[in-house]
Design a protein that fits this description.
It contains eight helices and twelve strands. By secondary structure, the protein is of the alpha/beta class. The strands form three sheets. Strands 4-1-5-8-6-7 form a six-stranded mixed beta sheet.
């Protein structure tokens, strides 16, 4: 069964994003999103999009579309901006936290873009971003250079096809590594419900408290779990933290 990924072109419609010398971030985001999607589709990935035209969606709507589609991954495309023109340059990828396959994928994307000439800012934790906090699957937000950096724009324009290929290759390479290695993760389960409504209620309660919670649908049960830890000690620490807040927990593996 192929992987499914929802690609999200940031901003759109009445929201142009960052603007520099008439250049609008929303247009760059959409062009790169569609180009990456094409490469992924050609490699057997089931690709869905939050938008393929110049439309505006709120961050909550973008997360909702991904959750309702039940995709395996969510990747949002943006461009950075600084207070002053040509103040900064480089690429970075934002994640909810530095754990699990999303962190490995983010590192691979940064490295791939660095090979094309971009300065590597790195991978940053941004748990407050709605599209990273509200999505129930591994999620990334790619900042493909600064839109008000002439050097980043030169690279973006001259090597756009290579950029799309590099991002797609980094994604595919990460998925191939996961398939081959099948790492063991420890997760803290907070509840298992037959009712989706009850599971969602618990999920959003945890998300609102800042926990990296997600929902799994297995058989006839909706399971609310927190984290994905390769070290059992980290899972135990998370379990204790949740128990201290009154939750009934169970460590499971995947």
């Amino acid at each position: 069964m192929p992987y499914s990924i929802m690609l999200d072109a940031g901003h759109g419609g009445s929201d142009p994003g960052a603007v520099y010398k008439g250049r609008q971030e929303k247009d760059d985001n959409l062009a790169l999103t569609l180009a990456v999607g094409k490469f992924l589709e050609n490699n057997g990935i089931d690709v869905l999009y939050t938008r393929t035209t110049d439309d505006y969606l709120t961050p909550f709507e973008r997360a909702r579309l991904a959750n309702e589609a039940g995709v395996d991954y969510f990747i949002s495309f943006h461009r950075n901006s600084s207070p002053e023109a040509n103040q900064y340059q480089g690429v970075e990828v934002l994640v909810y936290d530095k754990s699990g396959i999303k962190y490995q994928m983010a590192q691979n994307i940064v490295g791939a873009l660095g090979e094309l000439g971009f300065r590597e800012i790195g991978v940053q934790e941004r748990p407050g971003l709605v599209v990273l906090r509200r999505t129930r699957m591994p999620a990334l937000l790619i900042e493909t250079g600064f839109i008000n950096s002439d050097e980043d724009n030169r690279l973006y324009d001259e090597r756009q096809k290579e950029i799309a290929q590099a991002i797609a290759d980094a994604i595919l390479g990460t998925l191939n590594e996961e398939t081959i290695e099948e790492p063991l993760y420890y997760r803290v389960q907070v509840g298992a419900y037959r009712s989706r409504e009850n599971a969602d209620r618990m999920l959003y309660q945890l998300l609102d408290k800042g926990y990296p919670a997600f929902l799994l649908h297995e058989g006839d049960l909706y399971k609310v779990q927190v984290g994905a830890f390769q070290q059992i000690g980290n899972a135990i620490n998370m379990e204790q933290r949740l128990r201290n807040e009154g939750y009934s927990t169970l460590i499971v593996t995947k």
